[in-house]
């Protein structure tokens, strides 16, 4: 399986994996459009975030996942995104890639990162549904499967999002796994695989 991971990597992480032949690293910023903007990287609590900068020397190019894939000729079977609030932008910039390759998706769903960037935490699900990603598995922030849900079920998606506000931080964000309806993988098969794995332990 050929997988693609879009995430924040520290300089140490880049140097750690740079010599591995099965990895190809692209040190770039991904978004939903091609542009240049003034940014700086703020490191905090073992992670890093992009912040807008007033310094003209901090100009960086933003590219889309579509343009990156077009130039690399890489066909991803699985795409993992963990970008602390920029996940939706990365997904919107991957529209043609998702239409063409129907890649399995795994991304972070965290309203505490999304809202400060002006994102509606529910907006990506209608986008995914229109692209053919109709069923989602929701994981809590401990990696446990919580539920299976349709990506057009806005009512229950909103309830899940609201729960992160009242759960006193026991569950503060979710991860989402979804497969294209026309791909060779599906939620049912994934759940069956997990069950077989647990029974074999």
From TrEMBL:
InterPro entries xref list: FkbM_mtfrase, SAM-dependent_MTases_sf
Methyltransferase FkbM domain ranges (all copies): 59-134
Pfam (any one): Methyltransf_21
Source species, domain of life: Bacteria
Name listed for the protein in its UniProt record: Methyltransferase FkbM domain-containing protein
């Amino acid at each position: 399986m050929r997988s693609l991971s879009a995430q924040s990597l520290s300089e140490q992480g880049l140097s750690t994996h740079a010599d591995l032949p099965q990895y190809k690293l692209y040190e770039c910023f991904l978004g939903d459009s091609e542009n240049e903007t003034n940014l700086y990287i703020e490191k905090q609590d073992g992670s890093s975030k992009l912040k807008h900068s007033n310094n003209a020397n901090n100009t960086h190019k933003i590219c889309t996942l579509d343009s990156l894939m077009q130039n690399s000729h890489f066909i991803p079977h699985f795409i993992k995104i963990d970008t602390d609030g920029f996940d939706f932008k990365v997904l919107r910039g991957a529209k043609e890639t998702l239409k063409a390759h129907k890649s399995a998706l795994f991304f972070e769903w965290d309203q505490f990162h999304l809202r400060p960037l002006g994102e509606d935490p529910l907006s990506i699900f209608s986008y995914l549904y229109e692209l053919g990603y109709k069923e989602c598995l929701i994981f809590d922030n401990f990696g446990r499967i919580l539920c299976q849900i349709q990506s057009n079920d806005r009512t229950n998606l909103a309830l899940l999002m609201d729960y992160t506000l009242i759960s006193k931080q026991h569950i503060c964000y979710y991860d989402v796994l979804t497969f294209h309806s026309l791909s060779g993988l599906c939620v049912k098969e994934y759940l069956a695989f997990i069950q077989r794995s647990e029974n074999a332990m």
